[in-house]
Amino acid sequence: MAIDKATVTKIARLARVRVADEEKEALAGELSNILTFIAQLDEVDTKGVAPMTSVIAQPLRRREDKVTDGGKPDDILANAPEKMAGFFAIPKVIE
Amino acid sequence: MTNLTDLTLAAARDGLRAKKFSAAELTRAYVDAMLAARPLNAFISETPVIAKRMADESDARIAKGEARPLEGLPLAIKDLFCTKGVRTTAASHILEPFTPTYESTVTSNLWRDGAVMLGKVNLDEFAMGSSNETSYFGPVENPWRKQGENKSRVPGGSSGGSAASVSGHFAIAATGTDTGGSIRQPAAFCGIVGIKPTYGRCSRFGIVAFASSLDQAGPMTRDVRDAAIMLQSMCGFDAKDSTSVDMPVPDFEKALTGNIKGLRVGIPEEYRVDGMPKEIEALWQKGADMLRAAGATIHPVKLPLTKYALPTYYIVAPAECSSNLARYDGVRFGLRKKADDLVGMYEGTRGEGFGREVRRRILIGTYVLSAGYYDAYYLKAQRVRALIAKDFNDAFQHVDVLLTPTAPSAAFARGEKTADPISMYLNDVFTVPASLAGLPGISVPAGLSGEGLPLGLQLIGRAYDEETVLRTAHVLEQAAAFKAQPEKWWNAA
């Protein structure tokens, strides 16, 4: 399966990663090579094999449904690139 | 008196307790060594002031007879572990301004046990790479160089700064993380010991996530005993990690009995890959001979799906990476590239903040998870992964531990493999299978290449059987008697 420039544009958009137009051709080539490499898996017969969901044989633990941490608005906002009145600030999204 | 920085962690521990030197003296020696080693670019953040404060506290503890297991021992911390109040970058531009307000569980455990922080060490960006060349903060140099040459060699990756600082004696030991070989391969390239424990042994809480079903922390040390001691402190159940294993941590140092009589060692034939240098094949054979001489029995085993481990990994890891790295959006932490609208801000921030290899993996991951491709790629990979784990299970019905080379080559030159991502990925051919199966693996330095560069052998064990892995590694280490040291060329400058 080869990836072309249009596909790079599409997945870059899905991933919300800006890719400069002049980089797309080279990137399409690299990604196609990687896809060819992983296409080797088609040779493996996996009929009836359940996909691995956890590498360790243990069920996810449950805990009591109660608050165990919190009340640290200053810590949460400490690394915010922009904040305002105790909130994260972002560009305007509604007109 | 011998140079303090030439002592192993175990020897320094004993020296501190016997009051032959103080923690402050030991830390001073390491801070000086760390500053002198700046040409290697191993550290992203040096923390000498914190180191001094911690060392003084250690001396007070030792004076009161209250020394903890790692009291006064100066460590380098991979800059993927969140450290409260100390910048944590994951070697990425996107996290360049990030200072955590909390501490990772693994580093908390190390400080609880008395260790001293020297600083935060360099790595491949978000731990994605096998040569430490993808770091936003520049590549790390391997202390080792080809005999008679002064050209830079890569330290391996992603834990390249960790490996270089231990190998060059400017940290007594270091933390690493391993997703597909990022502890074991750099350990082999730098002539030190590195162990990735069973998935779930070390808490992932506070470690910047790459591929969560594979990421696992471990120690990188001068020898196997040091690895056992440090692993002891790093492991343990943590409710803050949903895949942390709730079982007792054995006494790893006690496992080093020196006795492997009757141990069954498996040699997986499929690891004899095309183009493997003769000297690595010879070293592998020598390793088997040494274990046999120590009383083990050697058995060929089959791991038929070995060749499919790398392609499986390059679906699973990028898929999880694209999901994990979705959090870097310029809103809550890290870099923000201003724009007039939200999508423009996301795309600009991520386009500028991530380096080439990280972007490549995010795009591959996004592709294999996208509508119409999920079953063909991701589900298929998870099925093959189940079969790879079964391969190991079958093999461990007949043997107790597996012996393989750690990497298919010695440390290569900088820039040698950056043009072709696949050739870089092939470095992890021997380490990725155990990662996919969640099994413990250790790399032990076992000899020098014809060019005078270190080569490592890997031992892989059953899940939660780090004790057998460490015991066997200890015997292999004694037999191989690897004593070579890199020349400290950076001190001459």
Descriptive report:
The complex is a heterodimer of chains A (95) and B (493). Chain A is mainly alpha-helical. Chain A has a domain at 5-43: Histone, subunit A (Orthogonal Bundle), CATH 1.10.20. Chain A has helices at residues 5-14, 21-38, 73-77, and strands spanning 83-84, 87-88. Chain A is flat. With 493 residues, chain B is α/β, with parallel strands linked by helices. Chain B has a domain at 4-255: Amidase signature (AS) enzymes (Alpha-Beta Complex), CATH 3.90.1300.10. Chain B has helices at 9-17, 23-36, 48-63, 105-112, 160-167, 184-190, 224-234, 278-293, 309-324, 342-353, 356-369, 374-395, 421-425, 432-437, 466-480, 489-492; strands at 43-46, 74-78, 116-121, 173-178, 193-196, 216-221, 264-268, 297-301, 401-405, 441-448, 454-461. An eleven-stranded mixed β-sheet of chain B has the order 1-3-2-4-6-5-10-11-9-7-8, with helices on both faces. The radius of gyration of chain B is 21 Å and the shape is globular. The two termini of chain B are 25 Å apart. The model of chain B has no long low-confidence stretch (mean pLDDT 97). The chains are: A mainly alpha (95), B alpha/beta (493). At the A-B interface, helix 1 and helix 2 of A face helix 9, helix 10, helix 11, helix 12 and helix 13 of B.
Question: What descriptive keywords fit this protein?
Answer:
heterodimer; A: 95 residues; mainly alpha; two-stranded antiparallel ribbon; 4% strand; B: 493 residues; alpha/beta; Amidase signature (AS) enzymes
Name the largest protein-protein interface in this structure.
Answer: A-B, 53 and 75 residues
What is the ordering of alpha helices and beta strands of chain A? HHHEE
Overall pLDDT level of chain A: 93
What would you say the CATH architecture of the domain at 5-43 in chain A is?
Answer: Orthogonal Bundle
Into which percent range does the helicity of residues of chain B fall? 25-40%
Radius of gyration of chain B: 21 Å
CATH topology of the domain at 4-255 in chain B: Amidase signature (AS) enzymes
Structural class of chain B: alpha/beta
CATH architecture of the domain at 4-255 in chain B: Alpha-Beta Complex
CATH class of the domain at 4-255 in chain B: Alpha Beta
Topology of chain B as a string of helices (H) and strands (E): HHEHEHEHEHEEHEHEHHHHEHHEEHH
